[in-house]
## 1
Amino acid sequence: MNGNDTCPCGSKKKYKKCCQLKPDFYDSKSFPQIAANTLSYLNKFKINCIYPINSKTLCQDKNTIGSHSLQQNGVLNIISKNNHVYYPNTNFDDYSKTYLKLDKIGIKKVTKFFCLCSNHDTQLFLPIEKKCYNPNNKEQNFLYCYRAFLFSYFRNYNVYSYYKQLEKKYNLFSNEFLYHNYSEISNMYHTFKSTLKIFNGIYMRNDFNELEYKIFSFSQVYYFSCTGIAIFPLTIFGKNMPKNYKSCFITAIPNNDKFYIIIGYLKRDKKYNEKFLQDLENLTEEEIKKIFNILIPLCTENIAISPKIIDNWSENARKQFNALLRYESIPKLIQVKGSIYSYINQTHYNLFL
């Protein structure tokens, strides 16, 4: 950065009179300790209950609880083995990057987010916690999308808050990777805040038609589950996609001897997502499974997989899946070719066992 540029921290001062005067983050002697404390900070982070409150529904608890974005008593019990699943865990590989790797973890510790008090967590998700899933039930489809969004919102807020804490003491803008990552996280945070208002408004108005839904149903149970925000900037057959692509909300769950992949998006974003989903509709069921086999680890880090699946994978399969979690390997080839379909038979792993 040029010293005369406006400082990215938002102070409106010149960079040379603001963050450039702070110790460089990566040159700091205390960096190893900062890195060691990072995961502890992220794992303990909580925010106030974000339930859309009115005068009749005040929070009964001051503290938010660890809500499961995938139901512990339903989905996670189905796919677990000895109450454990494989779940992406954050690790440090050097001073500049973190990476995700599948680790075997107890189901009480996975898929959690801290956005709701116990009262509102129960109240909000009761229709999907206590009732069997019905693909034609728009309220259930909305709530699965809402919960997928809340998990991603919390994760983003979590990291954004951590960066803001570091920004008070260190220069985060001298390192290109860190500067880019911080800017991206900050932009996402402000986008998520506006999207949260939209979701809360839909819930309060009880108007679930403001989202479009596409449900993929499979006639047998598969032993994995995921939920989160998905972005489909790539195409299935190499055709052009809109440049300003928008996110959608994805949940994959076993339910009632079947398996469902629920995709929803705001109607205002229809033109950004409908072509991709239309292409999926023209594929066979086996082709659709192979497409999602690639997309799911790319779309969300919030995926729980049964040991029944992972224990049958080769070492190469595990390495390839972990690489996809880090957006490596096949995605680089897809970006060159602009087509996912060309690579559906090049995965060594298979989620749909």
Note: Residues 138-167 form the longest helix (30 residues).
## 2
Amino acid sequence: ADFYLDIPNFGGVDVRDYEQSYFGYATPCIYDDKLFVGSESGTIVYYGEIKSKLREKWTPIIEKQFLVFDNQKIVINEGEKTTLTLADINQDGYPEMIVGNLAGGLSFFQGVEPADNTLVVTKKIGDDDILVYPNPSSEYITCETKTQADIQELFLYNLMGQKIESVEQINNTMAEMDIRQLPIGAYFLFIRLKTNKIIVKKIIKY
């Protein structure tokens, strides 16, 4: 296919964080005619449907994409220079989001809402099938599944949506995370099972 430049400043999109850099870094992803843009700062900007307004200047609907847990909005930020893709991977009618980061890794966010102005929300699945103890804790957190699905990975996020700790390649029904060096406070623990189901638990470090 041959291409020519049609709209140089498409939509007036500018996801630069001037406190971090003047150069910028935009990684677009279109899902169902809706535009999502990754940024140098690590946040994801959501512009909504653009099909009917290709030659207009857009205003972000959500400047920092978030997930929702316990009625709290948690900003998704996987580190500098995020890239993303959306697809209905499990064919449940809701888009899943995979976010890449500068460190070379990927994070998976499971959707429970259509891709509209509520965006992608991480779904809690089978909370009763996962035990997290002791909670609160000051040293270690143990995760144990009561099903036959092994725990694959643990990811710990602070309330700003920043990933601060992880335990990977577990492949067992029990896993442990060291939280001794973390500041006192509340965190969200993402537990990915071998079936790719993701369960979220709120934990307290004291």
Note: Confidence is low (pLDDT under 50) at residues 117-121.
## 3
Amino acid sequence: MKKLLSFLLIAALLVSAFPLSMTATAEEGEAQTAGQLKLYESFTLGYWPQSAVTSTDLINALDAVPAELRSFGFTHGNASIKTMVGNAQYKGFADIRYADIYYNGCRYRKVVSASWRPNCTLRSLITCNLNQTTTNYYKWEPIEWIVCQVGDSGVVATPKYILDEQPLTYSIDDPVSWENSFLRHYLNIEFYNHAFTAAEQQKLTAMEKFGTTDLVSIPSVSDL
């Protein structure tokens, strides 16, 4: 069973529209157009990090692979101090960084979460002033899609498994607007460019949702 990525913030259910000319069953070695796909039928398209690496030997081997970590600059948690005499609580925060690495012909995503002073109280400020990091690895695997809508111009599909979770906005202070949201940018730039090859990208067609035109979007309330 596919594992959920560990750097989860806000659930992102990915929905993409595909034209009639797409090849839907490449994994099985036979071509099928979107027009031949039926409602709730599954097919594979693209790759994304999914299954968590649990083998200690493999984790040690991946730890030894050089990796240049990237960050979207997000933190999570509450960094405010509750002013209670003798028991002021500093909840701490975490910065999420990642890198894609290759080992023995397979591609993995390295995800590092760095927590500063986790669950720290001012009473133990000296002892808890530590930078604790957690590293996890996920293997890139084919994305399995389920057809949720069938139309004359193609189908709308959603992944069978949750692939990722990201925040809707750049900051908790930002107004909730899909057009200018981080999540829209992430899906149509980061996810789109890394999950699909150039040939696969040609099989996607733009759709209108929330007053915008996108290649990848999230479901509306009516979709659910």
Note: The longest helix spans residues 182-195.
## 4
Amino acid sequence: QARQQFFGYVVFLGAHCAYGQAGLRRRLIVRLHKILHTLDSSDLALRCLFPSDAGTQVDLSDDQELNATFEELLQVRIDLDAAQKHEARLRQLIQMYMGEASKALFASGGSVTWKRSKDGLTFNTSKFVQAHPTLAERFMTPKPGSRRFCVYEPEPEV
């Protein structure tokens, strides 16, 4: 039901954005945001809703709520980076004590494994293209680009 609601709003939003009704657009985006929290595929839904950019810029510096969201995003990224580094140090400590063992058991009943994956084969596309350019060209398929969300932190004040 959330998916139907979401895509209903998407169609409605698309129609009204085309006619420049900014106030309505804002209210619909807020509703979509609430629905997105209930969907597992919110990233996919946003990519479908906004598949490409218009090359324009929007100034959100007057929107206190979105500025707070941006600041929270920056803090979450810092926290996530610290947590990932901490996780790596803990994992490496356990691996150091495991040595060549494949599995380690813990008092909680939990365990970890550290095993080598099976060797495999990989297709070297660049060598194939160099050796057989005409054949490779016959099997090339265009792949559409996608939007990337990049975060730029404010420049430090000097």
Note: The two ends are 52 Å apart (CA to CA).
